[in-house]
C-alpha cells in the first residue's frame, strides 16, 4: 500500500499566512516562507500554498513567495490561486513549484485542464474543488440554474457537460462547487465535477469541504468518500481537521490518499512528526 501523505496548507493573503472559519474571519498565522521552513524540518510530505483571494481580486499569481520558498525548502510544493493561463503555470513551475492547483479557471473553461495536462503532464495538474452541501433541486429548478449559469459559463449547455448539474435521486446528498475562494456558487455537482476533471487530465483532486473548513470537527467524510470512490486519481482531503483522529478518519473512512490540514499545525497543537507517529501506530502507512 502506498504511504499516505500529510500536507500542511498555507492559505496566503497579502503575502501572509492566514486561517479562518468556513473561508471567512481570517487571522494572521505568519510569514509563508518561515512557516514552510518549519514544516520542511518536521518532515511534511508536501506543502500547499493557496492564494485565497487572487481570483476574487483578479490578481496575478504569487511568484515571489514561491521563489523564496523553493529556495529554502526541498519538499514538493503545490501552488494555487490566480492561475488563468498556460503561461501562469509555466512561470510557477519555473519559479520552483512542482504542481499547480486550479479551481476557478477550470470552472470557467474545463478544457483548460486538458490543455494544461497535455502541455505539462497530469502529474503536476491538481484540480481544487471547494464544495458545500446543498439541497436537491427539481428538474425545473435545475434547468433554471443551467440557464442562469450559462450566462457566465458558455460551456454549460453543451450536452457532454449536462451530468455536472445535479443529476441524482431526490432526497440524496449533493455538494455544490464554489469558486473565487468560496464566494461564488456554480450549481455544479462536486462528485460529477471530480470525475470530469479526471477525464480531462487532472492528476489529483484537492477536495475542500466549505462546511467543515476551520470548524475543527473533522473532514466531511461522506463527501471525501464519495469523490474518492468516484475517481481513480489521488484525492487530498481538506477542511475541518481538529485532532489527529480526524486525519486517521480521512484516510480510513474517507478513503483519501492524502490529508491536508492547517490550524492544528500552524498553531502548534501538533507537529507533523506527532501526526505521522499517531497514524503509524494506528496502522496507516506513512513516511517517517
Characteristics:
11 helices; 34% helix; alpha/beta; 288 residues; 25% strand; eight-stranded parallel beta barrel
Biggest sheet features: 8 strands, parallel, barrel
Q: Considering DSSP H and I runs of 4 or more, what fraction of the residues is helical?
A: 25-40%
In round numbers, the mean pLDDT is 88
Give the termini separation. 15 Å
Return residue spans where pLDDT drops below 50 for at least 5 consecutive residues.
55-59
Secondary-structure element pattern, one letter each: EEEHEHEHEHHEHEEHEHEHEHH
Cα-atom radius of gyration: 18 Å
Strand content: 15-25%
Q: Quick one: how many beta strands?
A: 12
Write out the strand line-up for the largest beta sheet, numbering strands in chain order: 1-4-5-6-7-10-11-12
Shape summary: globular
Number of helices: 11
Structural class computed from helices and strand pairing = alpha/beta
Describe the structure.
The chain is of the alpha/beta class. 34% of the residues lie in helices and 25% in strands. The chain has helices at 32-42, 63-70, 86-95, 104-108, 111-120, 139-149, 190-200, 221-230, 244-252, 263-266, 272-281; strands at residues 5-13, 16-21, 24-30, 47-51, 77-80, 99-102, 125-134, 174-179, 184-189, 204-209, 235-238, 258-261. It has an 8-stranded parallel beta barrel with strand order 1-4-5-6-7-10-11-12, surrounded by 7 helices. Helix 7 packs parallel to helix 8. The radius of gyration is 18 Å and the shape is globular. Mean pLDDT is 88; it is low at 55-59.
Brief overview, please?
The chain has about 290 residues and is of the alpha/beta class. The chain has 11 helices and 12 strands. It has an 8-stranded parallel barrel with strand order 1-4-5-6-7-10-11-12, surrounded by 7 helices.
Amino acid at each position: 500500500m502506498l504511504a499516505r501523505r500529510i500536507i500542511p496548507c498555507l492559505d496566503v493573503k497579502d503575502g501572509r499566512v492566514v486561517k479562518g472559519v468556513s473561508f471567512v474571519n481570517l487571522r494572521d498565522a505568519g510569514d509563508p516562507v518561515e512557516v514552510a521552513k518549519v514544516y520542511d524540518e518536521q518532515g511534511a510530505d508536501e506543502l500547499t500554498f493557496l492564494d485565497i483571494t487572487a481570483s476574487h481580486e483578479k490578481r496575478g499569481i504569487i511568484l515571489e513567495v514561491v521563489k523564496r520558498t523553493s529556495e529554502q525548502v526541498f519538499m514538493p510544493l503545490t501552488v494555487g490561486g490566480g492561475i488563468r493561463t498556460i503561461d501562469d503555470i509555466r512561470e510557477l513551475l519555473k519559479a520552483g513549484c512542482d504542481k499547480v492547483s486550479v479551481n476557478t479557471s477550470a470552472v470557467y473553461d474545463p478544457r483548460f485542464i486538458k490543455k494544461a495536462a497535455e502541455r505539462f503532464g497530469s502529474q503536476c495538474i491538481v484540480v481544487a474543488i471547494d464544495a458545500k452541501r446543498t439541497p436537491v433541486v427539481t428538474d425545473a429548478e435545475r434547468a433554471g440554474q443551467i440557464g442562469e449559469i450559462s450566462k457566465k459559463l458558455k460551456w454549460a449547455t453543451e450536452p457532454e457537460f449536462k451530468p455536472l448539474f445535479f443529476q441524482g435521486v431526490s432526497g440524496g446528498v449533493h455538494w455544490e462547487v464554489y469558486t473565487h475562494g468560496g464566494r461564488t456558487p456554480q450549481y455544479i455537482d462536486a462528485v460529477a465535477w471530480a470525475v470530469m476533471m479526471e477525464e480531462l487530465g487532472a492528476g489529483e483532486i484537492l477536495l475542500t469541504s466549505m462546511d467543515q473548513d476551520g470548524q475543527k470537527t473533522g473532514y466531511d467524510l461522506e463527501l471525501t468518500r464519495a469523490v474518492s470512490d468516484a475517481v481513480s486519481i489521488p484525492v487530498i482531503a481538506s477542511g475541518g481537521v481538529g485532532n489527529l483522529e480526524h486525519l486517521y478518519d480521512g484516510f480510513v473512512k474517507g478513503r483519501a490518499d492524502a490529508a491536508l490540514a492547517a490550524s492544528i499545525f500552524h498553531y502548534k497543537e501538533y507537529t507533523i512528526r506527532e501526526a505521522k507517529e499517531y497514524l503509524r501506530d494506528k496502522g496507516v502507512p506513512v513516511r517517517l
